[in-house]
Amino acid sequence: MRIAMVVTPFTESNLRLAAQVGVTDIVGRYPPTLSLTIGQLKQRVEAAGMQLTVFEGYIPHDQIVHGRPGRDEQIELWTSLIKDLGKAAVEVICYNFIPDGDWSRTSVTQPQRGGALVTGFDIDTFKRPTSETVSREQLWDNLEYFLKRIIPVAENAGIKLAMHPDDPPMGSLAGQDQIISSVEGFDRLFQISSSPVNGMCFCQGTFAEMGVSIPETIAYFGDHIHFVHFRDVDGTVPRFAETFHDNGITDMAAAIRAYRSIGFDGPMRPDHVPVLEGETTENSGYTMLGRLFAVGYMKGLMEATANGA
Questions:
Q1: Which residues contact 234 (CB under 8 A, 6 or more apart)?
Q2: Which terminus of the chain faces fewer neighbouring Cβ atoms within 10 Å, N or C?
Q3: For residue 27, what is the enclosing H or E element?
Q4: Max alpha carbon distance in the chain (Å)?
């Protein structure tokens, strides 16, 4: 297992901090950070002593998900991006098929240990963005349309596709169907194509929100797991809150043992960290101090579970 990190803001100082605490892999964002090309981003990361191995977040896909007339143009963008990532020796592209675009929360100021602030979700206060709804079967049709065109490109480029689950993982969210919100949803995803590049991002927090056993679900999906978001929560849908990585409902050591048992040796990054003293909620979940704590905790778990411990 390799510890990865999204570096926000992307500065030389934060890159050095990541390297200093033992991060080996950097996760790039779309569009390439600071208007750098993928090649330039790769050079910056390697100059700091790490490697650019994952790309995720904000890659335009709304037309694809909704099956609108512009979806073929977006698929062309994905095709070009995947080819460029392959040339740069990036390993994984992480994406989602959430109809409303990305993960949803109703609060960014829920108190955690010591007054740290975390994000939370409560269905009673959730309001959907204004957009048209898409039926469940239409979403599946749109996903298959996308994958049938993208998987051959990814195979040729040597890029693994890692689907992130809907977050919150609910089959219907305020009137909008969602399809990647359960173990069964991922089963159907893998039935679309048996290609080894067709895989998943195992977001521990989202699966914990489902109420499933994390170690058992890791074992169930096995080598479908291409990338890991290491995080935890308190509660399950339809009401939950993020936590420190050592303070949620999941046995995190058991999770690491489960990754070892399936032979996972890919990138794993801390996700959705608390906002700590001196930081603001402007970029909740992606502040730097909480990630530094999380990396140390992850390294400790990895050492403690080594050699069958």
A1: 240, 241, 242, 243, 247, 248, 249
A2: C
A3: strand 25-29
A4: 54
Q: In what order do the strands lie in the sheet with 107-111?
A: 107-111, 117-122, 239-242, 233-236
pTM of the model: 0.97
Q: What is the pLDDT of residues 196-212, one digit of tens each?
A: 999 999 999 999 999 99
CATH number at residue 21: 3.20.20.150
Q: How many domains does the chain have?
A: 1
Task: Tell me if 62 sits within 8 A of 100, measured CB to CB.
Answer: no
Instruction: Read off φ and ψ for residue 286, nearest 5 degrees.
Output: -130, 30
Identify each DSSP E strand in 36-179 by its residue range: 51-56, 92-96, 107-111, 117-122, 160-164, 172-173, 176-177
pLDDT (tens digit per residue) in 244-259: 999 999 999 999 999 9
Is residue 131 pLDDT above 80, yes or no? no
| 246: containing domain | 2-308
| E strands, 30-145, in order | 51-56, 92-96, 107-111, 117-122
- How far apart CA 232 and CA 2 sit, in angstroms, is 19
Q: With beta carbons less than 8 A apart as the criterion, state whether 192 and 183 touch.
A: no
